[in-house]
Amino acid sequence: MSVIHPDELNAKRLTGVLGLDRPQAIDARTGDGTLIDDPAKRAPLVLNGRSFHDITNIVCGYVEEKPGGWWLVALGLAAMLAGIGTLMIVYLLVTGVGVWGLNNRVDWAWDITNFVFWIGIGHAGTLISAILCILKQKWRTSINRAAEAMTIFAVICAGTFPGIHVGRIWFIWMVFPIPNSNGIWPNFKSPLLWDVFAVSTYFTVSLLFWYMGMIPDMATLRDRAVGRLRASTSGPTVLPFLRLRVDQLRAWIYGFLALGWRFSSRHWREYEKAYLLLAGVSTPLVLSVHSIVSFDFATSILPGWHTTIFPPYFVAGAIFGGFAMVLLLMIPARELYPNMKDLITLRHLENMAKILLVTGSMVGFSYAMEFFIAWYSGNRYEADVFVFNRLVPPFLAGPDGRYAPYWWAYWTMIFCNVVSPQVFWFRGCRVSPLWIFVVSCFITVGMWFERFVIIVTSLHRAFLPGQWGMFYPTPVDILTFVGTCGIFLFLFLLFLKFLPAFAMSEIKNVTPAASPHEDH
Amino acid sequence: MAKAHNTIYKTSAGEVVYGMMAEFATPADTFHAAEKIRDSGYKKWDVYSPFMIHGIDEAMGLKNSRLPLAVGLIGLTGAAVGFGFQYWVATRGFGTVVQGKPLGAWQAFIPVTFEIGVLFTAFTALLAMLAFNLLPMWYHPLMKKERFLRVSDDRFVICIESRDPNFDSKKTWSLLEGAKGYNVQLVEE
Predict the structure, then answer these.
(1) pLDDT, average across residues A456-463
(2) Measured between beta carbons, which residues in chain A are less than 8 angstroms from residue B44?
(3) Residue B6 forms contact with A (CB below 8 Å)
(4) Which end of chain B is more exposed for a tag (fewer CB within 10 A), N or C?
(5) Interface mutation target, options A273, A288, A508, chain B, most CBs of B under 10 Å
């Protein structure tokens, strides 16, 4: 491999031979050049022959330069929704859970639906950062940082719901493993307590993993700011009257967070070991979290919940829904940010579409298996749940006039989760960002409905007719959920602006120029 | 017996010398230079690169990291403490009979034991990485160097410290230059 001396490359760029903005050539067969079907050829992970310096400039540019006008508009909108959500939470806390639509029959509804929905979203981030790391899937390097950020923000949204749904919020400390004033300890045999440990561990470990990954990249941001400070005495200030330079602020903040990282190989060696170990423990962790969430249901005796298939079914569904959310965030970002298409190629999108197809089919298989077991177990209640709680619409009601009041929720779920991802059998849909985006929207809706179906539909027809009732959401229910979407988006937009959205050091390491052996 | 090394190198301006650094153009040049420096018997030196160059630990002659051992031990300790704590709570702290099973039915304690083990492992991985690397350390002589800042972007630097017994201003200079290093310069403390 011939290597251009970095100074020579710089000189070329200065004379305009290599600009930072380069249009992408789209080819009918290979898309942007990454959709190579030949297994003997390795598809490039970074397009346009980007050098290390280009990658630094592109990624740091997202932080250092002014974002497009859309960013402020989107941030304002998200902040508004987040504000509404916060108001709803305050209203709930000062009034009581009666402001929600849940009742004595359906006593878990949107709160737990939203909790499971958000915690599931998080799982794709950990899958990308941990499991794909262990499997040496190099394409993960350009999506892992954003996906990990998404995980953390989703878990923040998820954690809100169990926190606020307890009714008497001043007793929330009872979830912690400390005895109350009567010397009574929490019951460690309860899946609800396991859940507290699983979710809080998951959040903490995801945060550590995310932060550790960002240490070298924040050191890059620090060094660039320091370089500019040394090169000139002028530059943009924080505010017109506050004569503190933005670069000074960056040097302090990123410098503090980078902990004095200086890219030493002796450090890198420990770092890579620690990174691998974190990936190693995050892998079983992510599988355990949604398994434990599913235990909240599976260990009860309620028909529709009391199923051994729940743990794998929940984990597959979580990864499915999470990948859809990654795509919902990254496809627009890829269009809006300059040069992002060089880092997130069509092949990245195609790979993720394939994961959607696989996990969607696993989820579909689980739905079918629930029916099979309901029949095969010979349990009348179980069979009744699946036929008359979920499946039968009013126009197909049986001779006694029974039908499933929530049939529309069930069929929405089936259409969105099982039918819609099947378009990815066709290559044309798999490589089209528009198709992927639309299907991801369906999947996100479908995965929310899946949790609604499991929770509300199972509860609304329990064993005794006296326990039967319907659930109607109140405006507070709806706006709280919309509010968490706002919180999620708000945090994600701040992340895109203020933190390195791509793992620069990892991306540099997977480019061909990073190989220490000339013959590659 | 090894010669006691207590020479303090100073620049012509009288500043104490931390070491001597050289830049390298590519990962391959850096890799081969590292092998040469390793074979010349240097111990106190380091390679600085924007990412970990594949196999650089062997090229530098570094021994295996003991990080996994520390992480494994503390992780398992955490799991043991978590299990013991739950067992104590369930049997002595406040016994609750669930589904007619014995108070100390251990199977129910596994999920939380696992989570606590993971929590300890993760904290240890990050904190041990920092401790082994003597971080946080917000100041370093190299950070004053204008050309060193580009290591966080696309440059490769090797720095041999003056406290290395083999350090010799002339020989080290020619070794670095001979290994395709350029912009060789002294780093002041």
Answers:
(1) 91
(2) none
(3) no
(4) N
(5) A273
Q: B45: distance to nearest CA of chain A, Å? A: 9
Query: Out of A172-176, A253-257, A423-427, A497-501, which region has the weakest mean confidence (pLDDT)?
Result: A172-176
Q: Is B108 on the interface with A (CB under 8 A)?
A: yes
What DSSP string describes A277-316? Answer: HHHHHHHHHHHHHHHHHHHHHHTS--TTT--TTHHHHHHH
Which amino acid is residue A262, in one-letter code? R
Is the pLDDT at A286 greater than 90? The verdict is: yes
Strand, coil or helix: A439: helix
Answer whether B115 sits within 8 Å of A278, measured CB to CB: no
Q: Is it the case that residue A167 has pLDDT exceeding 90?
A: no
Q: How many residues does chain B have?
A: 189
Answer yes or no: are the C-beta atoms of A408 and A303 closer than 8 Å.
no
| Gap between the Cα atoms of B169 and B178, Å rounded | 14
- Cα–Cα distance for residue pair B168/B78, rounded to 1 Å: 48
How far from each other are the two terminal CA atoms of chain A, in whole angstroms? 7
The ipTM is: 0.94
Query: Tokens standing for A431?
Result: 């490589």
Mean pLDDT of A293-320: 93
Q: How far is B175 from chain A (nearest CA, A)?
A: 20
Interface test with chain A among B32, B51, B158, by most A beta carbons within 10 Å: B51
Question: What's chain A's average pLDDT?
Answer: 91
| Contacts within 8 Å (CB) and 24+ apart, A377-383 | A379/A303, A381/A303, A381/A463, A382/A303, A382/A304, A382/A306
Residue whose C-alpha is closest to residue B21's, from B179, B178, B160: B160
For A223-249, write each residue's pLDDT tens digit: 999 999 999 888 888 888 888 999 999
From B46, B109, B111, residue closest to A288, measured CB to CB: B111
Interface test with B, best of A197, A224, A299 (most B CBs within 10 A): A197
Tell me whether B158 touches chain A (CB under 8 Å): no
pLDDT, tens digit (0-9, with 9 covering 90-100), for A371-382: 999 999 998 888
Residue whose entry in the numeric block shows the structure tokens 């378009």 = A423
Rg (CA), chain A: 25
**How close B47 comes to chain A (CA, Å)?**
5
Contacts of B138 (CB under 8 A, 6+ apart): A255, A256, A259, A260
Structure tokens at B45: 């030196």
Asked if residue A507 has pLDDT above 90, the reply is yes
pLDDT, position A7: 52
Answer yes or no: do B67 and A51 touch at CB < 8 A: no
A187/B152 Cβ within 8 A: no
Q: Has residue A17 got a pLDDT over 50?
A: no
Determine the residue of chain B that is closest to A225 in CA distance: B149
Q: Which of A290, A299, A218, A311 is nearest to A259 (CA)?
A: A218
| pLDDT greater than 50 at residue A321 | yes
Here the tokens at position A425 are: 């059998």
Residue B51 in contact with partner chain A when CB distance is under 8 A: yes
CB contact under 8 A, A263 and B55: no
Nearest Cα neighbor of A109 from A474, A487, A412 is A474
Residues of A in contact with B139 (CB under 8 A): 260
Q: How many whole angstroms separate alpha carbon A153 and alpha carbon A350?
A: 25
3-state secondary structure of B99: coil
Give the span between the Cα atoms of A433 and A352, in whole angstroms.
11
- Distance between CA atoms of residues B185 and A49, nearest Å: 32
Interval B59-107: pLDDT, tens: 999 998 999 999 999 999 999 999 999 999 999 988 888 889 999 999 9
Say whether pLDDT at B3 is over 50.
Answer: no
